[in-house]
Each structure stands twice: as C-alpha cells, then as structure tokens.
Write a structure and sequence with these properties.
single chain, about 600 residues, alpha+beta, Arc Repressor Mutant, subunit A, Rossmann fold, 4 domains, 5-stranded parallel β-sheet, globular
Length: about 600
C-alpha cells in the first residue's frame, strides 16, 4: 500500500484511505492517481497518461484535466500551491508528495450514523409527485405490518437519489428508523454485502443503535458491524461473527421493526455484488408480516446492469413482491419550473427554456449542468442582484458538452467493451438516428453481424434503442436505432480522432453511392454531409452540383438553387486556384437555374 501524508492508496480494493476513512474513487480517477503515485517526482506527460489509461483509443485531453480536477478536490489540493499534484503547463503532471510503502492493514471504517439530507423546500423537487405518493402509500402500508419492496429505476441523472432524499425529508418527523447503504462501483463486485454493512453501521450508530446492537448480537451475530461496543463484538465472539447468514439478518430486521417501522434504503444496486442481491431477495420473499420497507434504486435495467439484478427484479415483479417506479424525463413545463427555481426568477431569459430543454431532453442532471455551463461561459449574466439576462446567442451543439456531463458520459462508455465502443463511435457519425448498414460501412464489417451487434447494444444499454427497420434499394433490410440522448452521440463523436472520423465518413458516403447507384441525387445532401465532415470539399461540392443538375432536369428549380447555394458555400473551403474554377462553374449553373 502506498502512503503519502495522511493518505493511503489501497490497490487491492481500488480506493483511497484518509485517517481511517475510506474514499471510493471511480476507476479512471483511481487509475490516474495510482499511476502518479507509483511514479513520483517525475513528469508524466498528457500523452503518457492517456496511453496508459486509454490504450489505442482517442480521448479528449479535456477529460484528463477534468479527472485531475476531481482528484484535487478529493485530496484537498490547491493548483496554485500544490502539495500532491503539480501541473506542468501544456506538458503534464508531477506527483510532488513523498511516497512511502505502508504495510498497515486496511481498517474497515463506517460512517457514524445516517443523517438526512439538509432540509430544503418542497419546491426544489420537480414533477415527481405521483412517485412520491406511491412511496408514501408503501411506507404507510409497511407501518401497518405489510412488508414492502419498492424499486426506483431510471437512467443516469434522472433523479433517483433526489426522489429518495425528498421522500426521507418529508418523513423525517415520522416514527420510522432509517438505515441507508450505497453500492460503490469500485467495490461492489469485490466486497460482499458492502451496502448492507454500511446500512447496519448507520443503524447501530443511530439513536436506536443500542437496541440494534443487542438484537444483532443475539439473533445475527455475524452481521454485527466492526467496531461495535456491544459485548458480542469482543474477541471471544469473533468466530461466530465471521459467518453471515441472510436468514438471521432478516429475522433481526423483523424483530427491530416490531417496535418501530424500519425503512432500509439500498442505492445503485446495479453495482451490487450477488451476495447483496441475495439479501434483497430474502427480505422480499419472507412470508412473515413485518413493519419493514425496502427501497432500492438502480439504473434502468435495459442498461449495463448485472443480469442477476435483472432476473431478480423480473421474478419479484412477476410474483407481485415488489413495485417498480420508472422515472422518465421531465416535460417542458417541469424544466421551466426547474430553471426558474435555480435562477430565482419567474421570467426566464429569452430562449433559455427551449435551448436547455432541447439539449437536456428533460434529464434533471443535464438541465442543471447545462444551466451552470451557460452561466460559467457568460451566455447569461446579471448585474449584482438583478435578473438574469441573455448576453449572447446560445452555443450550437458542435461547441461541445459541459465538462461535468462529458466526464459522466465518458465513464459510462468506458465501462463497455472495446467492440461496443467501436460500434457506438461509428454510430455517432450519423445523427441521433443511425442505421446499422451505415455502422457496418464505417467499420468495413459484415452488415448482418453489425445488425446483430446493434440489437444487442439496444437490449443492454439504456441510451440506445431500436427504432424500426428500413428496406434498402438493393432489397435488403437494415434496422435503425436512436441515441436516447443527443449528448451521448456528441461525446462518442468527439472522442474519435479527426483522421478516423474522416475515413469513416468517407466510407459511409461511398456506401450511399453504391446503394443508390443511378439515383445518387436522392441522397446527395446526405453524401455531401459526410464528405464535408471528412474535409473532402471537392467531392462534397461535386455530389451537390450533380444533384442540382438532376433537379433542374426535373424542373425543380427551387431545389436545384438550394443545392447550388450550399455547394457554393462549401467551395469556399477548397484550397488553391481550383477554388476559383469550381466557384465559376457553380455560379454558371446558378445563372442557368435562375434565368
């Protein structure tokens, strides 16, 4: 274990320790810190870090800077006067702290007690009142002795934790004991029962903790959290504590709930280990009455969730042992209310609501991140305590994705295999809608195999879904798909190198020409778009001029004029004396159309 000042880097569990407290880190942040700590005192260039963490994959350097910024927050480091990570401008980073080897065993530490989120007005919670009513009805039923299991599902950033926090705030005065555990990606598959033990630690440190410790020591000694001051935690009882039986834990929970209803919250179960899922299954299937409610959250299970969780959820739903609340995106009116709340004013800057709604597509996290981005970049400003006003035109989508969202989406993409990433990157070369044949063309792979691979992605990933099937001019059929959110498409597009994008765009344009041989004019604008994206201006102009000539022969003058005007704009990018020749030819065609 590497140690620097009060920090210790746990390479076995891929986390950080500080003064006995465990600090989980996302995989890439841990990878960056580990590489820096294992190479102290020397310059680590941006390229070296990128090659180490993303071999054979192009990743924007901005993502690397974002990760380092987050690491500095965790370490309490100051970029102006660094104690750990020193930035070498335009070159890379140096780890400047003294690093030593530590043989000290890992200490298991749990939070002292579960505390509710800070009180906030109900107005901070937008458009989830139906879900809130269903949660409240479940808690009321549990209070009457009817065991309840409620699953809250939804995509990243959709507001699962916000719903749970608001629900707990509304019931903080109710006579209910709350225990909350959080699954962690870096640990979920390695340390059994991690969220369960965290919830038990909260329970034992709560005002009802003495009784909880006594019940656990008597009924389920293997589940007593480390560090308990109960006599059962002594050395004499250590052998018994090493055995954890889910049935004993269920009995202990039921006994605790006999005097006071018990609300167990397990979050992010898509990262849970199978042992934790076993506890959830046992709690849900118990036939005995219990004043117990189990509230779990997870990402939408058409995503990259563990198949075991999907099977468990389906089985519990089929047996009517749980209810599932699927959180969808906010509608336009809810986004307007959210923006008004965040800005503290009813009248919004002109165009703000429409811009944010279209770019966020109703995802609450994206709404907030887009707003923060617009404020940080000074697209909207205010004078002292005056109202917020639009300072300039809002950015086009090509200007990029806010760093916070880009990092979150990058992390999701990095969890996928290399083949999945290649297919998704190729898919991003189209619009948010992409046909499988175009992906196959971009990758120069068999269309049938890519069709199957895209179908598999649509089954596994919540941000890709199958949208239908088209018949191609050669009589074959090809499915087409959509990205559930345009920001995913943008991140996937930008993470490819420019040369790779150019090659793939060219292949798609050439495949369009093959499919529509003799009828290229029908797809000329699309072909031109791909040639333009590839930087092949002459070919882009050529297909537009050919299409304009076809339109002119069909007496479709307005169509021909529009194609030629676009060709003339693209011709401005042609280098050398050839540009003048091409522009003169286009103007001559325009004259003929208009004459």
């Amino acid at each position: 274990m590497k140690q620097f000042e009060s920090f210790r880097l746990d390479t076995q569990n891929e986390c950080l320790w500080c003064d006995g407290a465990q600090i989980p880190l996302p995989p890439k942040q841990f990878g960056i810190l580990r590489y820096l700590v294992e190479n102290p005192g020397r310059l680590i260039t941006h390229d070296e870090l990128l090659d180490h963490l993303w071999p054979e994959t192009y990743v924007q350097p901005q993502v690397l800077r974002t990760y380092v910024l987050e690491l500095r927050k965790v370490l309490g480091d100051d970029v102006g006067s660094p104690r750990y990570i020193q930035t070498v401008p335009k070159r890379g980073y140096t780890f400047v702290a003294r690093v030593t080897e530590s043989a000290e065993a890992r200490i298991i530490a749990f939070p002292p007690a579960f505390t509710l989120p800070p009180p906030e007005p109900d107005s901070c919670f937008i458009d989830r009142e139906d879900e809130m009513r269903r949660l409240q009805a479940a808690l009321d039923a549990a209070t009457q002795g009817q065991r309840q299991v409620v699953c809250v599902a939804g995509g990243a950033g959709i507001g699962k934790t916000a719903l749970v926090d608001a629900f707990l705030r509304r019931n903080q005065a109710a006579p209910v004991t709350v225990a909350r555990g959080q699954c962690v990606e870096a640990l979920g598959a390695r340390e059994e029962y991690y969220p369960v033990m965290e919830a038990l630690a909260h329970l034992c440190a709560s005002p009802d903790g003495d009784r909880a410790c006594r019940v656990l020591a008597r009924v389920a000694p293997g589940w007593l959290p480390p560090g308990s001051d109960d006599p059962a935690a002594s050395q004499e009882s250590a052998p018994a504590r090493s055995v954890r039986m889910p049935g004993e834990l269920c009995s202990a929970f039921e006994e605790l709930a006999a005097d006071k209803p018990l609300l167990l919250v397990f979050e992010d179960l898509h990262w849970a280990d199978e042992a934790t899922l076993g506890v959830v299954s046992a709690l849900a299937r118990r036939r005995t009455p219990g004043r117990l409610m189990l509230l779990i959250t997870y990402r939408a299970l058409d995503g990259t969730a563990d198949p075991a969780l999907k099977l468990l959820k389906q089985d519990l739903l089929m047996r009517r042992l749980c209810i599932e609340l699927n959180l969808g995106p906010l509608d336009r009116e809810a986004v307007i209310r959210m923006l008004s709340r965040e800005l503290g004013q009813e009248a919004l800057p002109q165009g703000l609501a429409e811009f944010v709604y279209e770019r966020s597509e109703g995802n609450p996290l994206f709404v907030k991140a887009m707003l923060e981005h617009l404020i940080a970049e000074r697209y909207i400003t205010r004078d002292q305590d005056g109202p917020w006003r639009q300072r300039g035109p809002f950015p086009e989508s090509e200007s990029g994705v806010p760093a916070q969202l880009s990092q979150m989406i990058e992390l999701e993409i990095e969890r996928l295999g290399a083949d999945d990433q290649r297919i998704l990157e190729a898919a991003s070369l189209m619009t948010v809608v992409f046909p499988a044949w175009a992906v196959a063309a971009a990758l120069e792979e068999d269309p049938a195999e890519i069709d199957e691979a895209c179908d598999d992605l649509a089954r596994r990933l919540y941000f890709v879904r199958r949208a239908g099937e088209d018949e191609l001019p050669d009589g074959s059929r090809s499915a087409f798909y959509v990205f559930a959110h345009g920001l995913y498409r943008e991140v996937l597009y930008q993470r490819q190198s420019a040369s790779r994008r150019a090659r793939r765009h060219t292949r798609i344009a050439e495949r369009l020409a093959e499919l529509f041989a003799g009828r290229e004019a029908n797809v000329a604008p699309e072909m031109a778009m791909h040639y333009e994206a590839a930087g092949n201006w002459q070919r882009a102009v050529s297909v537009l001029v050919s299409a304009a000539q076809d339109a002119r022969e069909r007496l479709a003058a307005p169509e021909a004029e529009a194609l030629l005007e676009r060709a003339l704009r693209l011709a401005e990018n042609v280098a050398g004396p050839q540009r003048r020749v091409i522009e003169d030819e286009i103007r001559a065609e325009l004259g003929a159309v208009r004459g």
